[in-house]
Amino acid sequence: PRESRRARRRARAAFTTSDGVELEVARASPTTTAPTPTSRRAPLVFVHGSYHAAWCYEEHFAGYFNARGRETTSVSLRGHGASGTTPGAATAGTLASHARDVGEVVRSARGDEDEGPAPVVFGHSFGGLVAQKMVADGDVEVSGLGLLASVPPSGNGEMVKRFLKRDLWASLKITYAFITKAFGTNPRLCRECFFSPSLSDEDVARFAAKINASSELRMLDLKALKEELPVQKPAAGSRNADVPVLVLGGALDFVVDREGLEETASWFAPRAELVVEPSLAHDVMLDADWEIAAARIERWLVDNGL
After folding, report:
1. How many angstroms separate the CA atoms of 22 and 81, rounded?
2. Three-class secondary structure of residue 209 per DSSP
3. Helix/strand/coil percent split, the chain, to 5
4. DSSP 143
5. Per-residue pLDDT at 1 exceeds 60
6. pLDDT tens-digit profile of 124-136?
7. What's the pLDDT tens digit per position in 145-178?
């Protein structure tokens, strides 16, 4: 019954990009009112990472924030979930094309740009890199930027080197899993890549199946990506130059390490707040203690008047 109620109040639809590709979006309205009749909380837009889709935010986060008076939009990037692809493309997109798509979704989430607060954009893993690029481009106004276990502005190269030095065998397994998408059919490997020991075996198996079905194309060509890095900061004086930034990750993450989180927070200093939760692994929105992450995000939103 709980899932039925949740399904009834969430609308899944296709959003058509400026170049004609249909993206899957899941939109939901608040299920509670804002604190005062005249106030409106900033809408939230969620961007997933590699091998995921909009579903990863719809599982827990969307309902959590809807219940706190917030509109939410979860988007599946092109080549992921039920979204379309660029005809003839070998990968789902480039950093620039994904950022452009997300910017268009963000603009639609606000509606009339003269009314209400601009959205806050959250990006996970490589989706965090996409969100950084979109905010830096400055084509669309945002109220804030949330980076969840996000790849740093310089990319993941240095993190991979650090993990190889710390644990060669484990790093090779993780690298193999991401190259072959083996975690989609191997729940044990899926746990090592994305989840903490606390998440139930049943949930790991369920999420592994969803991850396996979420994409046929790689999100990005990592070799080509190097030419787009590092992602620049929003230019001084630009519309997104002074927005607050939350950098949140997990101490049990074997994909994005603490140094990577610290690099991102330093890049966006002094506007960034760094939070590393001890019980969380890479998929902070799906892990056993996802509600700790959600509550910390809500506190940051409130503290920044969003």
Report:
1. 11
2. helix
3. 40, 15, 45
4. S
5. no
6. 999 999 999 999 9
7. 999 999 999 998 888 888 788 887 877 888 877 8
**Contact yes or no for 134/46 (Cβ under 8 A):** no
Looking at the predicted structure, is the pLDDT value of residue 9 above 70?
no
Rounded-to-integer distance, Cα 3 and Cα 17, Å = 30
Average pLDDT over residues 246-266: 96
Helix H, strand E, coil C: the string for 210-261 is: HHHHCECCCCCCHHHHHHHCCCCCCCCCCCCCCCCEEEEEECCCCCCCHHHH
Specify the residue for token string 């990968």: 91
Dist CA 179 CA 286 (whole Å): 22
- How far is the C-alpha of 131 from the C-alpha of 153, rounded, in Å? 10
Q: What is the DSSP letter of 83?
A: -
Q: Rounded CA gap, 187 and 86, in Å? A: 30
Describe the strand order of the beta sheet including 144-148 as a list of residue ranges.
Answer: 10-16, 22-28, 72-75, 44-47, 120-124, 144-148, 245-250, 272-277
Q: Which two tokens stand for residue 162?
A: 């650090």
pLDDT of residue 187: 96
| Model pLDDT for residues 48-60, shown as the tens digit of each residue | 999 999 999 999 9
Averaged confidence pLDDT in the chain: 91
The interaxial angle of helices 201-213 and 187-194, nearest 10 deg, is: 90
Phi/psi class of residue 195: alpha, beta or left (left: φ > 0; alpha: ψ in -120 to 50)?
Answer: beta
**Would the pTM count as exceeding 0.70?**
yes
d(CA 224, CA 172): 22
Residue 120: CB atoms within 10 A of its CB come to 27
Q: What is the pLDDT of residue 5?
A: 41
